[in-house]
Amino acid sequence: MSRPRIALTTGEPAGIGPELCAALAGRRFDARLVLIGDAGLIAERARVCGIDLALRPYDASRPDTEGADELEVLHVPLAAPAVAGRVDPANARYVLALLDRARDGCMRGEFAAMVTAPLHKGVINDAGIAFTGHTEYLADTTGTPQVVMMLAGRTGADARTTADGPWLRVALATTHLPLSAVPAAINRESLARTLRILDHDLRAHFGIARPHIVVAGLNPHAGEGGHMGREELDVIAPVLDALRADGLDLEGPLPADTLFVPRHLDGADAVLAMFHDQGLPVLKYATFGHGINITLGLPLIRTSVDHGTALDLAGTGRADTGSLIEAVDAAISMARARRTH
């Protein structure tokens, strides 16, 4: 049986992405992993970090059923020399070129999924390129009108070492917005689309026959019957009622401060938070730094680490590969589920 071919972008060249990707050489995956980045940079960072690495040049015509478990590299040259820990706007377009190559390969069926190592948004903007993040860039460049950001991770006391705890999945109704802009961004149409995307992709990519989704309110105490805000009464509850009538399994809107407890999470397949810092602090605390980011609604599968470039750790060999390993495992699992959906 052919193994799924997974594209892995190596991210910001001054950050920890290249060495995290190189460190995957010590693990076995039931997939072909193709690193996209500068081959010399990856080899140099592996050497500095003491990683035993032998890269095989990527050959698109090679059958996915053959070959030993080894990393392949699709070489994309740096625009300028990269120094660990020191970002350079000259390499901003190089970073975007990695994304473009992985995206295009997924769109034409060359890759079953793409996994992204962290990039540095600030240096891309410093290069004069308006850039909000991976999620928005992939949505714009694939012509996708709405996507959903979902972070996920295994929870439980042993999640860091055994990675066999239950999954917590937290999706967002809004993403990278100032808090003052959040209420106006939550309307009936966008919220209904978000929930339909979440329900669809949990079925298609995770094999969940009828997802149970728990929905947070926006205001403290979910508005307390309109005394602390009317968004729950005017927007959220009517949308949930309409979608329940269409067969979606939805619970809420619930107060966010009491939502993340076993009574609601046991049996839940995902939580929908109304804004970034309502749900993600809980997720990141509960998953011990092994969480991942998944973009739902795209015409391709994309997973990512849930951390940044960690410039202070670049080139030291001390960066934790846990989130990247989980992101690769999730991409493989989602690719297989998509084959059978």
TrEMBL record:
It is found in: Cytoplasm. Its cofactor is Zn(2+); Mg(2+); Co(2+). A divalent metal cation binds at H176, H221, H276. Its EC number is 1.1.1.262. GO terms for cellular component: cytoplasm. Keywords: Cobalt, Cytoplasm, Magnesium, Metal-binding, NAD, NADP, Oxidoreductase, Pyridoxine biosynthesis, Zinc. Signal peptide: none annotated. The keyword Transmembrane does not apply. One of its GO terms (biological process) is pyridoxine biosynthetic process. This is 4-hydroxythreonine-4-phosphate dehydrogenase. It comes from Methyloversatilis universalis (strain ATCC BAA-1314 / DSM 25237 / JCM 13912 / CCUG 52030 / FAM5). The lineage of its organism: Bacteria, Pseudomonadati, Pseudomonadota, Betaproteobacteria, Nitrosomonadales. The gene is pdxA.
